[in-house]
Specification:
The protein is mainly α. It has 6 helices and 2 strands.
Length: about 170
């Protein structure tokens, strides 16, 4: 009789434990973080600053190329006049400008690449995106949000993709 009572109590206890566990269903969402970044950063101040850097870089490259071309034309004219001294001076200036041009392109190009790479890790922008992800997840009852480009994520239903909801929240600001 005692075994029956203990067995019944144990069964009732296990049913309650499983029942409680069943009530805590975890809802999972996925999002396309790369799409959010590309859509959101296009309008950011940091992206505009990088675009200005690119524009200034392109203008300076054109100016340097024009200077080099002008010096080369002057050198050709000096050769045509038979002025060896001017030709040597111009050749020296051309080599200096070309070296400066190469260094400028290398250094400024690297600065722009670093700024673009840093764009995705900007703490202010990342924090704002994460705040919106948290808001949308909590509002819709999601406990976990995964990046759908994660190679460990094998399958998901598009019904749990919250990318559009995040973009809508970001657009409100």
């Amino acid at each position: 009789m005692k075994k029956l009572i203990i067995s019944t109590l144990l069964t009732v206890g296990l049913v309650r434990i499983f029942h409680l566990g069943a009530e805590q269903i975890t809802k999972v969402a996925v999002l396309d973080y790369a799409r959010i970044l590309s859509a959101f950063y296009v309008d950011s101040a940091e992206a505009r600053r990088i675009e200005k850097m690119k524009e200034a870089f392109a203008n300076e490259v054109r100016r340097l190329q024009d200077e080099i071309q002008s010096l080369e034309e002057s050198k050709i004219a000096a050769i045509a006049r038979g002025n060896a001294r001017d030709e040597m001076n111009l050749e020296s200036k051309i080599q200096e400008k070309k070296q400066y041009y190469q260094e400028y392109v290398r250094i400024k190009g690297n600065q722009i690449q670093q700024a673009v790479a840093g764009l995705g890790s900007s703490s202010e922008l990342a924090r704002e995106i994460l705040d919106k992800i948290q808001f949308v997840a909590e509002t819709n009852g999601f406990s976990i949000v995964l990046n759908r480009s994660d190679p460990n994520l094998l399958w998901w239903s598009y019904e749990v993709d919250i990318t559009e909801l995040i973009l809508q929240q970001l657009a409100k600001n």
